[in-house]
Every structure is written in structure tokens, then in C-alpha cells.
Amino acid sequence: MSRKGTLSIFILLFFLNILTLSSQTVQKEKQTLAIVLKIIETRYNISFSYADATIKDKKTAIPDENLTLEAVLDFLKKETKLDFELLNNRFIAIKARKRDKSFTNTQRLDEVIITNYLTTGITKLNDGKVTIKPETFGILPGLIEPDVLQTIQSLPGVLSIDETVSNINIRGGTHDQNLLLWDGIKMYQSGHFFGLISAFNPYTTKQVNVSKNGTPAKYGDGISSIIDMQMPNEIDNTFKAGGGFNLINADVFAKIPLTHNTELQISTRRSVTDLVTTPTYDLYKKRVFQDSDLTNFSLNDDAIDKNESFYFYDITAKFLYDITEKDKIRLHFFNANNKLDYEEQANINDRNEALNSKLSQQNSAFGFSYTRDWSSNLSTTAQVYVTKYDLDATNFDVINQQRLIQENKVIDGSAKLDINYKPNSNFKFNGGYQFIEVGISNLEDVNNPIFRSYIKDVVRSHSLYVEGAFLSNDAKTKLNLGNRVNYFPNFSTTLFEPRLSFSQRFLNNFRLELLGELKSQTTTQIIDLQNDFLGIENRRWILSNNETDTEVINNKNIYPVPILKSKQASAGIHFNKNKLLISAEGYLKKVDGITTRSQGFQNQYQFVNSVGSYQIKGIDFLVNKQFNNVVSTWLSYSYSKNDYTFPDLNNGNPFPNNADIRHAISLSGVYTYNDVKLALGLNWHSGKPTTLPDYANDNPDDNVITYASPNDSNLDDYLRADCSATYAFDVSDTARAIVGASIWNIFNQKNIINAYYTLDSDNMVNKVENQSLGITPNVSIRVNF
């Protein structure tokens, strides 16, 4: 048996043994109310809704597990002096008890503005942030599991032009301009199956915070957005485990109390694609490997057989240790891996030749954090982490007997001290220091003809940040104002990054929101050749050199890669009454320092090296109506105009961005009744910009395609309808199962997501089109303990 098979069986047996343990440990001493509520939510499959200030400083013992839900709520009412209002059989609102009119104290709604935003488990906060909690997540069209990076694409202003989670465009930015954090650690790989599935297991993710603008000063990088994924961080002495599978992968997870003050959280997920061939896998494979070395054949390739083997896996682990009530240690581990092997076999000169090409993509990380609560008003957190990204490809050309090795490696290390101080209920202060060192290397090695190139760069940065937050007594006004100062010793450069978030409620049901920020970024992804890394994952990470003009060093061209700098401002009006939400948000964003190599041009600028900028103006509009906590419907519309400006290109005139999606509409509905959830949705957006050949001025003898104006045309509009359904039921007193089914692209719409042109051997222009996923079914079953 192979090592891979042995490891898989060992992991499975390990988790099966865990599942035979006691389902929970009863802790008699009092716990914070927040921890007790999590236990009760899991035990009775319910969801509590409350303001943070309502339950602050409340403690209670964990109710006996044999009590009914009604008895538990009565117990909590007596212990906490709070009111628990049963909205339906699943949702419970927690409110402070009304005081006598002689009291002037007012209950503050600290952060939550809208709960069940679009669906359950998604919350809108009054600092512009959206929070997603996979544990209480409802359902979205086309999804039967709470895939983190698929879920955020339901938010206005967020989409993926090519339907992947490794190319998410947020307000016109490229995917590398999003900062992905897993428990505070930066991630450089976001997807499995080369972008079709999120690399982050949702069942061990407690909360995801998404910020498109006005991000807190403690965050650097990510000039388009912050996607901050957090695992549970509190010990609640409750055993929890589960597992499931669908037509692509299987997973198991467990949260294991080791002692009264230690806990282990662990999960693993692995594809079944190399063990069982499913219809869903065949459709995914067709989508991902189209226009790659696995499917591209030249005229001489008819006699070549290609057999591929592909699988992926991820492992997460977190160890929690509460040394004392004031001192806490956390250890974090993450590893995600995609592996592809394929063998080319051919008969050349009456000899059978067989060569093995492969591609491996891996992101691993280790982190340590220590939190100290000095008092009820002051706490500090020190964090150290190392994250490593490794993309390796070995590509054999069996006809020409050529071997190409390509590598892209990233090592990112960080040390951070974060300080939080809250002198009273009106003010909060956050500040700290962060040191980051990033090293990125790129290797290319060819054996015929012999060629080798290895480039490694390192950039260090020192950052100081401070931010103050004010919340008025009536909770109508909230202001966050901060600044981050970054110093880059490599370039002797200092950058100031002010941040603003302002929210004002007026006329009871209206809220004004103003957000603004300046940000910078030193890492970016580029495409040197479209067929790099087997043509499957052709982007590679590089570092800024802060140059603006091409330099020649040691007879080699050093292309400019400036520090990316962004400026963004937005203003929004939100109306919320009787479970009707209407919101409109206008924004303006400009990003300087982009290069043509980072934009993936496939026209006359594909091999041009130039530095420029893009500017996007847009508006996001949303109407969301909920009916009796059973039905939630929403319509979102986004309009944006996104233009490049490169002084050296197109005579310096602006032209449409590759990600200029002018119009996007989403219409969806979710129905929830007891344990049944149904979702149906429609997504439409205008076609991606494209550049057409200029046949009238083409010279067939120059071996070059003559193009018309860049991005002056568009692909056909994109249209896709999805549906999904889940049903939950009890299989025992301690186990609950969920079965689900979904269909992506119900009507099998043939959407073209990319098109470009090539020359054949006769100098004739050929059009190449990449299609989106067709009708794609999936089913799943899960059991949680």
C-alpha cells in the first residue's frame, strides 16, 4: 500500500476513534455567557441573536444536557437576568430587561446592524464589515456547504469573472490584491482543484470578517479587501465532531477538550478524485484543465496518450491553553496541498516513450500567539507566524525530449504586538507594531537548450498603527479613526495609511455610512507566459522592487515592480425596517503601481512591460426582504466603470480594465421551514472586455496578429441559475445528519469566460474560447456529534 493510502487510513481511523469518545464534558463551574450560548446552540441546533454589550460580563453554569430547551431558557433567565425571546423554533433573541423609567441607562447596540443579512449566519456591522459564521450559516443558491470564498461572492461588489475562488474580483481588483488571513496568518493559496473549491475548511471556521473599505489600521496589505477567517478561540469544555462527504471530497473534524484548560481543534479534508470518478469530478476536470498542457495537442500529438492523477487535501490544527484566567496561549497549524501527475506515452521512431509531468501547489503555516488580559480594560496579544507557499511544476515534452522545471516559493514571517484598551463604554483604542519579512524566489530550468534562471528577493517592513473608536450613548453614532505607518528599509520609504469608518443612524430607520482608506502592498502575482506551470496555475508571486523604469543589471533586464498604492472612499445610505433592507453605496477607488505583467493581457500588450494604474467608480445597490424568518429574498445590482491608464500604452489614453464588469445583477430567494432549506438564484453580468484582431490592417506575412483598440469589445453576457436544498434530521440523541443536493448552472448555459487569439502554422488567426462550468450536480451527507 502506498504512503498516501496508509496516511489516509490512519487519519480516518484516528477520527473514528475520536467520535467514539463522550460527546461532551459537563463543566459545573460558571463560564462566560458567550461560551454557554455556543454550547446550547450546538446542543439544540438553534441560533441566538444579541448585541455584544447585552451579554458582556455575564456568567452562568452550563445547564444540564437532559433539560428541555424551554427549561434551559428559564434557567438562563434566572441566572443572567436577561430576557430570552423565542422567535420561532430555531431563533432566539436575547434582550436586556427593561428598566424603570427613572433609570437613564440605554442599551447600546455595539456593532450588529443587520442579522440574517441575505441568509442566516451573515451579519452586517456598523463599521462597514460583513461577518459570516459558518456554524449558523443557512443556505445559498448552488451551495450545499458553507464554502467561505464562494459565500462572499454573494455580497454586492464581489464576483469572480472566471467562477473560481482563486480569482475573486472585489471592486475591480485582482485576486492577489485581497488579503486572506487564517487565524491572523497570511495565506498565499486560496483554492483547491486550482480554484473551484475553497482551501479553507468551513466546519472549523468560526467567523469570517470581510472588509471592502475602511479597514482597521491593524491590517496591512490587501488593497482590494480583507478576508479574515478565524477559528474558535475560547475553551468551552465541550466535545464536538463531525464528518461528511460529497462528490468531490470527504472531511472530518473534532474539537476535543483535553483538560479543563486545554483543547485541541483538528480537521482534515481529502478529495476522492483519485479513488472514485464522479460526474462532478469530470465536469470540474473539464473546466479546470481546458486550455492547458493536459488538453492542448499539436498536430503531431495524435499518437500521445495522457493519463492524469489528481488529488488535494488540507489539514488544520489549533491547540488552546489557558494558563490562567488572564493568560492564554494558542498554537496554529495549516497545510493545503494540490497534486497533479500525468504521464505522456508516445511511439517515437519505433520506440515507446513515457514521461511523467507533475504540478504541486502547497500552502503551509505555523503560528503562535499569547494573550494577556491585564485588566478588564486592557489586553495585549503577541503573535509570531511563518507561512510558506510552494508552486512546483515539471513539464516534459515527449516529442522534443525537453524538460522544463518551474518553481515559485514564498516564505513570509511576521511578529506582531497588538494592544487593546477600553477605558469606558464610549471609547476603544487599538495600537501595535508589526514586523514582516517576505522572501520570494522563482526558478526556471530547461534541459534542451540548456537554460537556468533563479531569482530571489526579500522585502522587510516595520509598521506602527493606532486607532480610536467612539460609540455614542444612544448607539446612533460610531466613528473609527486610525493610521498605519509602514517603513520599508529596502527602499528607505515610509508610507502613511489613514483609515476612516463613520456610521450615523438618523430618522430611526436610516443610516449614513462613510468609509475611506489608503493602503499599500509589496506582493503581487504576475503571468510571464500563459502556458507556465502546465497552463493550469500560470500566476507566480513576486515582490516589489520599487522601481518605475526598466534597469539593465549584469546584462539582464530588471523590470519595474512598484509598491502598489490604493486610495478609496465610499458613501452609503441604508434603510432597515420591518425586515426590509434597502442600501446603496457609491465608491471611488484608484490603484497606482500595477504592471502589465500582473494583469494577464492576451492581446498586443501580452509581452509589454509597463507601469500604470486603474480607477474604478461604482455603486452597489441591494434590496433584501425577509418574511417571518422563513423566506429571505434579495436583489443586488452593481454598476462600475473600471479603466486602466498606462502612460506608455494606447497613447496614454484610458481603456477598459480586464476586470471591467459594467453591470452585475443577482436575484435570489431562500426558504427555511424547520429542518428544510431551499435556495434558488440567478446571476447575470455583462461580458468581460476583450480585444479583437484588426483583420483590415493585418499583414499575413509578419507572423504577428494585428489587434484593434485594447479591450474595445466585450464577450457575450454571462447568465447562470443555481439551486440547492438541504434537510437535517436526528440520527440519535447526540448525532444530527444533514443531506443536501445542488445544481450549478441549471439550464446548462454555455458561458464564455475568456477568449483570445493565436496563429497556426499557416499564419491563420484562430480564436480560443474558455467555457464556464456547465450543469453541475453535487450531493452531500454530513453527521455532526
TrEMBL record:
<dbReference type="InterPro" id="IPR012910">
    <property type="entry name" value="Plug_dom"/>
</dbReference>
<dbReference type="Pfam" id="PF16344">
    <property type="entry name" value="FecR_C"/>
</dbReference>
<dbReference type="InterPro" id="IPR036942">
    <property type="entry name" value="Beta-barrel_TonB_sf"/>
</dbReference>
<feature type="domain" description="TonB-dependent receptor plug">
    <location>
        <begin position="148"/>
        <end position="222"/>
    </location>
</feature>
<dbReference type="Pfam" id="PF07715">
    <property type="entry name" value="Plug"/>
</dbReference>
<feature type="domain" description="Protein FecR C-terminal">
    <location>
        <begin position="30"/>
        <end position="91"/>
    </location>
</feature>
<dbReference type="InterPro" id="IPR037066">
    <property type="entry name" value="Plug_dom_sf"/>
</dbReference>
<protein>
    <submittedName>
        <fullName>TonB-dependent receptor plug domain-containing protein</fullName>
    </submittedName>
</protein>
<dbReference type="InterPro" id="IPR032508">
    <property type="entry name" value="FecR_C"/>
</dbReference>
<dbReference type="GO" id="GO:0009279">
    <property type="term" value="C:cell outer membrane"/>
</dbReference>
<keyword id="KW-0998">Cell outer membrane</keyword>
<keyword id="KW-0675">Receptor</keyword>
<keyword id="KW-0472">Membrane</keyword>
